[in-house]
Amino acid sequence: MALPLEDYALVGDTQAAALVGRDGSIDWLCVPRFDSPACFAALLGTREHGRWLLAPADGAPATTRRYAGDSLVLETDFETEDGAVRVTDFMPPRQTAPDLVRIVEGLRGRVPMRMELVVRFDYGSIVPWARRLQEAVSYVGGPDALALETRVETHGENLTTVAEFTVAEGERVPFVLAWHPSHEPPPRSIDAEQALLETLTWWEEWAARCTYEGEWRDAVLRSLTVLKALTYAPTGGIVAAPTTSIPEAIGGVRNWDYRYCWLRDATFTLYALLSSGYTNEARAWRDWLVRAVAGDPAELQIMYGLGGERRLREHELDWLPGYEGSRPVRIGNAASAQLQTDVYGEVMDALHNARRAEIEPSDTAWALQRVLLEELEREWTLPDEGIWEVRGPRRHFTHSKVMAWVGFDRAVKAVERFGRDGDAERWKRLRAEIHQEVCREGYDAGRGAFVQSYGSPILDASLLMIPLVGFLPAEDPRVRGTIEAIERELTVDGLVLRYPESEESADIDGLPPGEGTFLLCSFWLADCLHLLGRDDDARALFEQLVSLRNDVGLLAEEYDTRAGRLVGNFPQAFSHIGLVNTAHNLSGARGPADERCAEEEDYAGGRSS
Questions:
Q1: What's the rounded Cα separation, in Å, for the pair 105 and 188?
Q2: How far apart are CA 385 and CA 127, in angstroms?
Q3: Residue 390 in contact with residue 329, Cβ under 8 Å?
Q4: Matching CATH number, 5-185, of 2.70.98.40, 2.40.50.140, 3.90.420.10, 2.60.120.260
Q5: pLDDT tens per residue across span 32-72
Q6: What percentage of residues in the chain have a pLDDT greater than 90?
Q7: Close Cβ partners of 368 (under 8 Å, ≥ 6 residues apart)
Q8: What is the SS3 assignment for 486?
Q9: Which of 42, 365, 422, 608 has its CA 20 to 30 A from that of 242?
Q10: If you classify domain 218-607 with CATH, what class do you get?
Q11: What does the angle CA 360 – CA 362 – CA 368 come to, to the nearest 5 degrees?
């Protein structure tokens, strides 16, 4: 059985990633890309579905671990009765093919070690052909091949490559696992020690560019490192998470593939990167966004593949039992074909903020935006599946309408503030029409709060975005009432649920109820409390959220307050983006929420009913 999520750490090379367990087992690895079929899939099954164990042979009573400095180089120290040993895990920034490097270092005494390498291509379904090639062991299956290089003697046991060796104080024993296409020869071997030095330098130089100097610098920088690690370097796309099918409730069916790039993430990601000094990454993300959505605006998707791929067919892997028995295991994501009107607003807002940050203007981007606005004008009146990608009937979700307002609002600003050509007067009329409709249809006067969809009494945490995008100010009685209602009715131990766990919500969602509190929504609540001037409450909630990170600073999508554990795909970009942006908001300087609200103060509609 896989470990609790808290016991995993991330290593990656900004094209692929692996999860390393506290027990020394790498239980998840997809190469050569984040969305490639896994060659280690024990995370979603058993050791027989692929893993790489490297740990003391007789176990370790005490284990500690950390990332080396500000890098993504993981150091795990095992204390045993025979002495102490350290395993260093990392993936060097890629030159050609991906490498996964492990170095065993003796710290004290003489420690017997055991290595077990179980390679299973295609999510654990293919047992490879293993053979010895000079100084390497080769594994070939279908289109994939791996080559293991080590000076330690290995042998086969039950379709597993095993090594047993002893490491003494001061000794260092390297292992290098390299992927290559099976029709090509193995790549040229790398020097593990040199690769370690180069990887440490690469990450430290990248971290040194961070401009955030607030009191949560360590947490912010670690979150930014996660976002960098989840960036697909060749295109600039950022995946939502490196995993698939980690359940939102243990044993449940809310198991989705998050190894893709969501347009919705664009605005939040750009804020996090730009406010922290990472203009190059923000520019690359902007450019990926423009390329991905290019084409017929009627065919706009809410998510794309790493290079902008559009066909993300969802299917199930019935041979995998799932994380802690949570089935089905899904590959691909059917939500890519949904209508989610809010993404138009998110795309417009993302490109608006790129202009505000003075990322060089793009005529292509503006031409694309104008076409998208034409499609938004046709679609904003339609019901949709909304931000939470419901699998029930379409509805007029209030958040979707608010983000449609954002789309036209940012278009007006492109003309009036940045000199772009366009029919600003028409967009102003549409902006006002949407604003009036949302305030009329999306607000429940009896509840004193905005509601999830028109005519529904249900609250929804996405409504916290109303002040964060400048639709209405936080101090507006309707917004204040919404924030307070969410705080009162949608929080569990202070953390925010997306919507109530009820039969009515299940009918809307199209899925059985049951999930953890949603961490990004909890960060949004902290932002809203800050805008209301409740900084003590905002800081207390933020500190609570920071405390949920595991020992190496990673967050999943959700947190199960009953079980006291992280749930959902891991690590989750959305959660780390929320941490970065809220830290900026609470650090004294003007943060993303403050800037948005200040910018929208000139919009009279934002003060009207």
A1: 24
A2: 40
A3: no
A4: 2.70.98.40
A5: 999 999 999 999 999 999 999 999 999 999 999 999 999 99
A6: 80
A7: 290, 293, 294
A8: helix
A9: 365
A10: mainly alpha
A11: 150
